[in-house]
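User: Sequence for ATP-binding protein below. Tokens please.
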Amino acid sequence: MDPIRNPYAPGAGQRPPELAGRDTELDMFTVVLERIARGRPERSLVLTGLRGVGKTVLLNALRSAAVRKRWGTGKIEARPDIELRRPLSAALHQAVRELGIRDDDSRDYVLGVLKAFAQRSAGKDAKLRDRWQPGIDVPAITGRADSGDIEIDLVELFTDIAGLAEDSGRGVAVFIDEMQDLQPPDVSALCAACHEISQLGLPFIVVGAGLPHLPAVLSASKSYSERLFQYRRIDRLDREQADRALRSPALAEGADYTAEALAALYKATDGYPYFVQAYGKSAWDVAPESPITEEDVTVAAPAAQTELAVGFFGSRYERATPAEREYMKALADLEILEEAPDANGVATKDLASVLGRKPQSLSPARDGLIKKGLVYSGERGRIAFTVPHFGRYLRAQPEL
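Assistant: Structure tokens for ATP-binding protein:
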């Protein structure tokens, strides 16, 4: 098989040639955009799921759908060490530019408010040379979205930008990846701003993506967040969808798989989209001809496993401290003892028992792993890996 024509894309956030299994979310978002365009009330959207299920890919696909409707869009990736104000300013600046507003006065006023909001990140009394300059070529408007209280400022800013979009007959959508990493004050402000916009019926939505515990993060900030967003759990592909993700790109290149090869690939990948792409790429490269057979999949498996071990599992393991690694190894062993699937995790009291420690003494390791995005707590007293098959990977590496 010609490696140059290999159609698979096992990269972080790279869109696969066939976005299988996400038609429901794409169709639903199209309805959201159309309803808002007609002045109907709609909620913002939150996508949740483990790593490797394609949340970022889907987020980008939803953004493309909004762009095709000529909405203004912007995207950020949240980080726990960076406040929301600055990256959000850049995203909203792009959204306003995409709207292409011809009324210079209205556009410049909103950009002036946005500039004041952005510059407030350096502190109201900061010297001009110390203020971040967002690249907005209009004077800052004082007295609007520049109080320093992120919740007040965000409500005012969203209202002004949404009003500008409404006047143009379009809307604005902001896309936030790794949403669980927003700082608590920013989460609270974002919820409050979305709530205000929703009550006013303005054409502005936030589309967030994050780990499975993101709904709990939002709920802890504002109790009404449970009703503020539409929540969509993004999971692994079923057998039919996984086969489609493999066969459609292959057929487009004049190739195919045997039924036995497809069965072997699903058993190896469990339908996780990132794994499907990694195994598909390796199987294509080793197969001498079409159709790709079960034997080809067997030969390709070590290369795919090495790819995942280095780029998907190993890099994450290396970020952990010795205490955190000990915690993860115990979690991996308990998955087998309790026969717990990756998504459900294990009881933290059992972890403490296995390690011979008091539960409170494990809190620093647990909290550190949560901050690094390696584990999450879907419910009180339980913990799970955020990465599919991570426990399996650790159990297969006795030297770690």
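The radius of gyration is 23 Å.
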